[in-house]
Amino acid sequence: MTSVDTIATTEQTSLDGKEGWRRLSPRMLLVHPVQEAIRLLPAIAGLIFASLQGGRHGYWGLLAGAVAMGLGILRYFTTSYRITATHVQVRRGFFRRRVLTVPRDRVRTVDVSAHLLHRLLGLARVTVGTGQTDKRNEGVKLDGVGAAAAENLHRELLHHTAAPATAATAEAGPEKADPEIELARLDPAWVRYGPFTLSGLVAIGVLVAFGQRFVNEGHVNVTQIGVVRRGIDQLSSVPLPLAILEVFATTVVFVAIASTVGYVLAFWGFRLTRHPSGTLHVRRGLITTRSTTIEERRLRGVEVSEPLLLRTVRGARVLGIATGLRVGRGAERGGSLLLPPAPRAEADRVAALVLGDSAAITAPLTPHGPRARRRRYTRALLFASLIVVAGVLLGWSGRLPWWAVVASLALLPIAVLLAADRSASLGHAIADGALISRYGSVVRRRAILRTDAVIGWNIRETFFQRRAGLATLVATTAGGNQRYPVLDVPADEALRLARAAVPGLLEQFVVAE
Q1: pLDDT of residue 333
Q2: What 3-state DSSP class applies to 276?
Q3: What is the structure's pLDDT at 8?
Q4: 4-5-11 Cα angle (round to 5)
Q5: Are 338 and 354 in contact (CB under 8 A)?
Q6: Interior angle at CA 24, CA 21 and CA 25, nearest 5
Q7: What is the secondary structure of 120-179 as a DSSP string?
Q8: Residue 47: is it exposed, middle or buried by C-beta count within 10 angstroms (0-12/13-18/19+)?
Q9: What whole-number distance in Å separates Cα of residue 176 and Cα of residue 476?
Q10: Of 125, 460, 467, 500, whose CA is between 20 and 30 Å from 208?
């Protein structure tokens, strides 16, 4: 059975038989089997461990490993692709044959990445994106193209060179690159911001998931493992508050180390450049390298993001608001990252260079007033008070130790500090043709959205907002998260702001009194 998935709304052209179709690099025969084996590693390890525990040889695990490697080899022989003057097409599948087609005029991003095995063998993975966020229609992947061919494809598809790549030119090596203007480069001193990114929490999640799968597949009793047993004995020998403190301190140290290592692996060699053809290039990565290109004509603005811990050391990162970039996967995976965690001054400088003007970066913001501030304190203290009251009731009934009830009182001053920070973060402005909105505390965001990119407005008023005379103005756009709010602004100011940002857009929906 053959199925055709067209990743666009335009009509697919007919296939020219076998003309122009070519396979991935044969060096991928050394990579695909390893990738499949790694993907199934928890199941394979579990089968081997279960077999050995039952007094049998680990044949089932070895057989599963052989099957995984066979699937990797089969993937190579069933995948082919071609680049025509109008389309990028990929054929794959053995039992279910599929042809994925991306019209070249719908190509929005071309990401070139290479993990360690790829780099050792001179290969790369090319992901051609159409900007659609649907998981089925996010683009096509060529996993196993020669590094030179990958650079040629990257240049051809985004810089719109005249002739499509051929099998000969694809392996001949990249053409001479046009000069690029460097906007930013990683300073090794920025590694000090790594522990404050909390990316190490992802590593903990991965280890926990891997361990859980290994335990389930192999029916392992983790309490019988020496290190785990000693850890449990140590925690059991000390009072509960001290045990909690030990676990917390150990977790903090591990997260800090893992976050620093993750920062180096993800961002080492980072470089942001501007190409004369009108594109921004981001290159980064130590073991796994990644190269992302963003067309500036699709750039709708930038966002300066300051997570709470990063803000305590005066750090920030810069994200692009652009059409054609995947969302919902995080800035790094989606390709919108323009600057990794770095000094705040550097983030402002890069944001200004990307926008082409610093006026929107340095513009003073209008605060949202005492009513918005009072709303922040009310919500924070109400939530903290409910937890404290619940703790007191549980303590009174004997279901919660009194030291935990006393500890819950610390939530009240924390709520006050959080409310003060959230109210101080609120602000908005219109400067240099851009709508600027700042909000958030755990992650403070300053979104700078071009007013000509605003395609609609949403004005929301909850029951409590109406009583306070406040509203949330949401600017909708085709790029980034597609919704950028101005939180808890006075209702009359929301209307004035919408009219000033995009004159005439709101009038057709407002009924004059």
Answers
A1: 54
A2: coil
A3: 38
A4: 90
A5: yes
A6: 130
A7: HTTEEEEEEE-S--SGGGS-EEEEEEEHHHHHHHHHHHHHT-SS---HHHHHH-PPPPPP
A8: buried
A9: 40
A10: 125
